[in-house]
Amino acid sequence: RAAGIVAIVDPFDASEWGSSLSKEGLSPTHLLYTHTHRDHAAGYPGMLSLYPDLEVWGHVDARVPDLLSHMVFSEVSFTNEWTQPAGESIEWSAGGIRLTVTHTPGHAPGHVTLHGHEVFHAGDLLFTNGMGRVDLPGSDPMAQWDSIRTGRDILRSLPGGWRMIPGHRYDWIDGSTPDWVSVADALEHNYALNSSGLG
User: Fold this and answer.
1) What mean pLDDT comes out for the span 132-159?
2) What domains appear along the chain, each with residue ranges and CATH number?
3) Are 137 and 143 in contact (CB under 8 A)?
4) What is the DSSP letter of 84?
């Protein structure tokens, strides 16, 4: 949050977010979606009901690929869309918030990562010790590896003390399930980022 702008990435549980925001005396102004799988976007209808004036952002390609894919995806009506090609970044800002948004498809069409303010939001491109699966409708294994390479290049350009926040908490190298790891630790220990196939 900055200068009256409150941006939330991938809110899954609208009631939980509404309660937490109320306790802080905040109202969200923007929803930013890394992708529209149900486990990231299920909170969309509830958030819109609670906060009808939200700006909702996602990539133009983050749509349900076909009718059968409704089991995996949630319908999200973006008020604004990012349109950059795979592997490319754009600068996004609202109030005092400044983020770099990179199109990183593979796990899901239209997947993006966002970084700024000492945080890299990985979505399901990367987890602390691995990467997102590529066996779901709309997944593309080759595109995922291209995006992993893009993500690695971005992480290498960031200060090592920045936080890498994945879309899910999974086991870390010490057996814990942290909410985030440092960029330096991710680069050192994440198996996908250290794959010999990346070159």
Assistant:
1) 97
2) 7-198 (3.60.15.10)
3) no
4) P
